[in-house]
Specification:
This protein is α/β, with parallel strands linked by helices. It is built from 14 helices and 17 strands. The chain has a single domain, classed as Alkaline Phosphatase, subunit A, CATH 3.40.720.10. It is globular and about 60 Å long.
């Protein structure tokens, strides 16, 4: 063999051996698929400080995570409730197509979704190991088939949290619509245990590319977190959101029926708990931010940190008295706007901020695109890759949120247009009215705006998928019923 050929063979063999023997847990070749760290937070609205939703709220760990890639400042959920939002994200199918509009609708019982290939199932079909812990799907419907491994199990997706001894700390006696400190350390909180397990996986060896999901439950109700987080927000210093007394005067009956001002809001005012409730939400966010910080630190120490895509998302927003409403379950900005950020090595650059209107439905096709794992024709979102590469790229698509059959909100860069099933409307100009206090739907000079946004309303409005129990289908919270 000629010397030049021997040298070439040696170089090739050396390269192969080096690729196999480096400290990384699996080969670090150029063609290696990236890992995915999929971080979901429940009920977190736009109060994170990177979005500026509430100056009282400081989230330094979330801020340093989202600053590593592109933060979408105008991102919205497909539905303002846990189950339909998460089912839409994980299947890529709109609520108006699936008929899964509310929490008590087991999404696998939808005729449209019964055979749906979820995001993680697609990755499993393309050589990935899909593992996770915490709340990714709605707690009552965890879908064991979507995971290779789950902790604590594929049916019990998170440990329980400690609770105060009092039945109702706030005095409202409205179930888990409650807040107050618990005599506990961070370590015993369910979310901390979930994060512990995810951190272990980040540092472990794995032979295949990994889709690793971490579902953080707080700030979902009840807002029970250790005392130190409440201490960060003295009640005397807490400011409540602005909610003009006449804010619902120009809202159609369908919108008022959703807001239910005589429900939670009236109870909060009657018991003088508005400041305490906001304090509880802020405290729960501070606890969550600490858990995100632990994840970021673990990622930085992980062997595959330079080849890991990170997706940070929340399932919907949250009202704290705005429009005389609490919780989610509306088509207004507070309920639909969500924090969403993506860090994609080789595509995104640090510090990106994108103002284009996007949707959680877009996560599924985006991940397929950036991970190069094929496509799926049924997906109703679109890949955000152009915006990841250039956050200022042209984007002509508004985004749609659905709450109940034939109730939709269309949001573009400036306007929010709402049409209810009875044909009544709302329209808000966010340049002049970011709090959505003035309904412009009846003003003829905005007819062209309404006509333009109306074109994006879903043409399909599927019948409701089956319900697990009778009722209005808008129940909050996760069922404790375990699926066998």
């Amino acid at each position: 063999m000629k010397r030049s050929m021997r040298v070439a063979v040696f170089v090739i063999l050396f390269g192969v051996m080096t690729c196999a023997l480096v400290a990384k847990p699996r080969a670090a070749c150029a063609a290696e698929k990236p890992d995915v760290l999929f971080i979901a937070v429940d009920d977190l609205n736009d109060w994170v400080s990177a979005l500026g939703g509430n100056p009282q709220c400081h989230t330094p760990n979330i801020d340093r995570l989202v600053a590593r890639g592109v933060l979408f400042t105008n991102a919205h959920c497909a539905a303002p409730a846990c189950n339909p939002s998460r089912a839409a994200l994980m299947t890529g199918i709109r609520p108006s197509t699936s008929g899964v509009y509310h929490n008590p609708q087991p999404w696998r019982q939808s005729p449209v979704l019964k055979d749906a290939v979820t995001l993680t199932q697609h990755f499993m079909q393309h050589g990935y190991t899909a593992i996770g812990s915490g709340k990714i799907f709605h707690g009552a419907y965890p879908d064991p088939e979507s995971w290779d491994e789950y902790w604590p199990s594929k049916t019990q997706t998170r440990p329980d949290d400690p609770h105060p001894e009092e039945k109702s700390v706030s005095g409202l006696n409205k179930g888990h619509f409650d807040w107050g400190p618990v005599d506990a350390t961070d370590e015993v909180m369910g979310d901390a245990q979930v994060v512990d397990w995810v951190i272990e996986q980040l540092g472990a060896k794995h032979d295949k590319p990994m889709f690793l999901a971490c579902g953080i439950y707080k700030p979902h109700l009840p807002w029970y977190v250790p005392q130190k987080y409440f201490d960060q927000f003295p009640v005397s210093d807490v400011a409540t959101p602005e909610a003009p007394d006449d804010d619902l005067n120009d809202i159609p009956k369908a919108g008022i029926a959703i807001a239910k001002p005589q429900g939670d809001h009236a109870a909060v005012l009657e018991h003088d708990q508005w400041k305490q409730a906001v304090q509880g939400y802020l405290a729960a966010i501070a606890f969550t931010d600490g858990q995100v910080g632990r994840l970021v630190d673990a990622l930085d120490k992980s062997p595959n940190r330079d080849n890991t895509i990170v997706v940070f998302w929340t399932d919907h927003g949250w009202h704290l008295g705005e429009k005389h409403h609490w919780r989610k379950f509306t088509l207004w900005e507070e309920a639909t706007r969500v924090p969403l950020a993506m860090i994609v090595p080789g595509v995104t650059r640090p510090g990106g901020r994108c103002d284009a209107p996007v949707n959680l439905l877009d996560i599924y096709p985006t991940l397929l695109d950036v991970c190069d794992v094929g496509t799926r024709a049924e997906l109703e979102g679109v890949s955000l890759r152009p915006l990841l590469a250039d956050p200022s790229a042209k984007w002509d698509r508004p985004t749609v949120t659905t709450h109940g059959r034939n109730n939709h909100a269309v949001r573009d860069t400036r306007f929010r247009y709402i049409r209810y099933a009875d044909g009544s409307e709302e329209l808000y100009d966010h340049e002049a009215d970011p709090m959505e206090w003035k309904n412009l739907a009846g003003d003829a000079k905005y007819d062209d705006v309404k006509a333009r946004l109306t074109k994006w309303l879903p043409t399909m409005n599927a019948e409701d998928a089956p319900y697990e129990h009778k009722g209005n289908g808008k129940g909050d919270g996760d069922s404790k019923k375990k699926k066998k």
